[in-house]
Specification:
alpha/beta; transmembrane; five-stranded mixed β-sheet; disordered N terminus; single chain; elongated; membrane; disordered C terminus; 32% helix
Length: 774
């Protein structure tokens, strides 16, 4: 009647106008609230009541079965949490079936807004399952389970449908039912096998870890390895990350992608090993765990496709963007590739393929491809968000030629990144599985006339929960209703390329900045070059160089591992530790310092001692000493300015090397001694000492010469005196009266006559003024 009165131009009374407005507000309030709820923007919680300010979060713990058929009963379990400040009453959880999503982009959009209301949510199933809660207090969580026959969902054609699990109820301010929270998930609907060709799916299963071994080894014959910590024992132990990767992977149709360094490290744990704890070393005790893990892995890979990455999984992008500017860096990649096959063959007794390179996140540019293929790999595992096929309405086969005899194996980016994030949260894990299945179905339904080969390359080091989620998703594909497994990556690489798929490698400028910021810098490769140089100089003097070359060569490979991304400080510390330890070993062969050598004569022997504290002997060394004043001090019989002697010292011994020196002048003469390798390369630091020459002076020589001359003259005079005495005695005997022939003419009192020498010759004493040196 009010409408009739208005239409006739009558003016209603104020009381009647008030009643009409109040009634309109009461009738329109629920509609207005629903409109706000339906158009609300994504928020931190599952949904927000725009009128009362309350919010309720809905999470899903499981969806079973993940890909149902008509005869199944769909069961969804989860939790509702009142994150608001007021209680929610008369609450219930219901199920909403949305429209079929048209293609992969629609699936992406739905996944991005999985916790936001949508206009396509549809009405709650009137005869569907519900879970009721009389009251949901603020901050309280309640579990729920919904079960409904699939036949009641009203699903139509094959495809991917969006399901919404919502909580509706009343608040203290709003006494009417409204949707307070919702969580969407995806339901792949393909009850029967695809009528046409199914896509083939190759899933890479990576066994990769960070670096655990240091360059340090024991001095015993076994070279006991030293571990940086004991984290690897936890990873390969029961329930650990790598133990789960093996336990789950052996039940799945996957291609194993293995870093040989991981195998070599675990193999080292099967024997005696040490663990660094601060500045001390303690014995490792996980030998049985290591043996069990290797045995389990060996059994799992028998008869399966195994791809070996270069040893220690080198960062190809860092090498391409920085390492190529440092001479010798690419040589490490070649060495790492050569040792890969031998390592896996020796430990697992399978022959792996070494024909694959895997840049970080499959991001490539021409320089990365060049480096990746420089060590002999012909297949580069890229990703579709790097090599984009924007003009195609379908996902092409993974393999394609990219020039220079190389192929790109382009992994699907959506599928490869589906399991990143915190999969330990049940809601995240359940949604990831459903999204993965939905994307695989949508990929097949794009074109069932073409059988395409799709490759999935997940993150390099999945967590335990990520690995478990991946395994759940792969097991959901076991019925093979829309995919079939293609375990062999080799077969995927050999698949006929799609002629419309892009083969153009993006330019260097297209490489993602986020990845570039995580790369090893130029200084890192310079550090590696310095360490390699030290190693080259050190190994040539060793009698058993393999004891040093192998552990340090592996350590340098580990310095360029992809595992250092995001840990620049750890990478720097590791490089510094390797260099310091190598320097310490090289310094074990050195000259023992001496200060002064005294030389008391024109010619003497100078000794310099070489000490070898290593357990192995050293050879091929030359000790060279050189006076700074070669005119004052010469070396050797030929008077050379430099003296050289070959050096060979047994392990834990010292060797004294002697040089003949000839002095030409008195006083101190500085001398430099240094070791060299046989090719003339300096080894170690020089050692300086002083030779103090105390040679006999010319004055002293004159004094001595004068003394000798006096002795000679005294001897001559004594001899002459003796001869005269003997002659006189003979003369006196002839003048005696008792002699028949004596002479009487001589005057016996003649003063000039000498007195008779009556003493013996040996007892004669020198006359006045004579000296005799005894």
């Amino acid at each position: 009647m009010a409408e009739a009165a208005d239409s006739q131009g009558m003016t209603p009374s104020p009381a009647r106008r008030w009643l009409r407005r109040t009634a309109a507000l009461l009738v329109g309030a629920p509609l207005f609230a629903g409109l706000l709820s339906a158009t609300a923007a994504p928020a931190a919680h599952a949904a927000t009541d725009a009128v009362s300010g309350q919010s309720v979060q809905v999470t899903l713990d499981s969806v079973a079965p993940q890909a149902p058929v008509k005869s199944d009963t769909l069961t969804i379990s989860g939790t509702v949490t009142n994150n608001g400040k007021q209680a929610v009453t008369s609450a219930h959880v219901g199920l909403r079936v949305g429209q079929k999503l048209s293609g992969r982009s629609a699936i992406d959009e739905a996944a991005r807004h999985s916790a936001s209301p949508s206009a396509s949510d549809g009405a709650e199933l009137s005869d569907g399952p519900t879970a009721k809660f009389a009251k949901l207090d603020a901050g309280v969580s309640q579990d729920f389970t919904l079960s409904v026959p699939v036949s009641k969902l009203g699903l139509g054609d094959d495809g991917v449908y969006q399901l919404g699990v919502s909580l509706s109820g009343q608040s203290a301010n709003q006494h009417y039912d409204q949707m307070l929270g919702i969580q969407h998930t995806l339901l792949p609907w393909q009850p029967d096998a695809v009528e046409g060709k199914k896509n083939q799916l190759t899933f890479l299963w990576p066994l990769i870890s960070s670096s655990h071994l240091t360059a340090q080894t024991g001095s015993d014959a076994q070279q006991t390895p030293v571990f940086a910590d004991d984290s690897l024992a936890r990873d390969i132990g029961p329930g650990g990350r790598l133990e789960q990767m093996v336990s789950l992977g052996k039940q799945l149709p996957v291609t194993w992608v293995i870093d040989p360094d991981l195998l070599a490290t675990v193999d080292a744990m099967t024997r005696n090993y040490k663990i660094k704890v601060g500045d001390t070393l303690v014995n490792g005790t996980s030998q049985d765990v290591a043996k069990a893990w290797l045995s389990q892995l060996e059994a799992a890979v028998q008869g399966e496709k195994v791809v070996a990455l270069p040893f220690a999984d080198p960062d190809l992008a860092s090498l391409a963007h920085h390492g190529r500017d440092v001479p010798g860096s690419l040589g490490h990649l070649q060495t790492a590739t050569e040792v890969a096959q031998k390592t896996i063959d020796t430990i697992l007794h399978v022959t792996p393929s070494v024909d694959y390179a895997w840049p970080v996140d499959g991001a490539v540019d021409p320089s990365i491809v060049d480096v990746a293929t420089s060590a002999g790999a012909h297949n580069v595992i890229a990703r579709s968000d790097s090599l984009r096929d924007g003009a195609l309405a379908y996902t092409p086969t993974a393999a394609r030629p990219i020039g220079g005899g190389a192929n790109a194996i382009v992994a699907d980016a959506r599928l490869s990144t589906a399991f990143q994030g915190d999969m330990s949260m049940a809601n995240n894990s359940a949604l990831a599985v459903q999204e993965f299945l939905a994307q695989t179905l949508a990929t097949t339904l794009q074109d069932t006339d073409k059988q395409r080969s799709i490759v999935v390359a997940p993150q390099r080091m999945p967590t335990v929960s990520q690995a478990q989620t991946m395994a759940t998703a792969l097991h959901a594909l076991d019925p093979q209703r829309w995919t079939q497994p293609l375990v062999d990556l080799g077969a995927a690489s050999a698949a006929k390329p799609d002629p419309l798929a892009t083969t153009r490698v993006p330019g260097t400028n297209a490489y993602p900045d986020a990845l570039r910021q995580q790369e090893l810098p130029l200084d890192a490769f310079q550090d590696m070059k310095d360490t390699q140089g030290t190693l080259e100089r050190f190994k040539v003097i060793l009698t058993a160089p393999d004891r040093v070359v192998t552990p340090f060569g592996n350590a340098i490979n580990r310095e360029m591992s992809t595992s250092w991304r995001g840990d620049s400080g750890g990478a720097q510390n590791y490089r510094s530790g390797v260099q310091l330890y190598l320097d310490g070993l090289a310094d074990q062969v050195h000259l023992i310092q001496k200060s002064t050598a005294t030389m008391s004569g024109r010619s003497a022997t100078i000794a310099v001692t070489v000490q070898n504290k290593l357990v192995q002997g050293v050879d091929h060394l030359v000790l060279r000493i050189q006076p700074k004043s070669p005119t004052r001090l010469q070396l050797g019989d030929d008077g050379d300015a430099v003296g050289e002697q070959p050096v060979k010292v047994d392990g834990d011994r010292s060797q004294s090397v002697k040089f003949t020196a000839i002095a030409n002048a008195n006083g101190p003469v500085p001398v430099t001694a240094r070791l060299y390798t046989q090719d003339g390369t300096p080894y170690g630091e020089p050692m300086e000492f002083t030779v103090q020459v105390s040679e006999i002076t010319p004055t002293v020589m004159l004094v001595i010469a004068g003394g000798v001359l006096l002795l000679v003259l005294a001897g001559i005079r004594m001899y002459t005196h003796r001869k005269r005495s003997m002659a006189r005695e003979e003369s006196e005997g002839d003048d005696d009266p008792g002699q028949s022939n004596g002479s009487a003419d001589a005057d016996p009192g003649q003063p000039s006559d000498p007195t008779p020498d009556t003493g013996p010759e040996s007892g004669a004493t020198p006359g006045p003024g004579e000296k005799v040196d005894h």
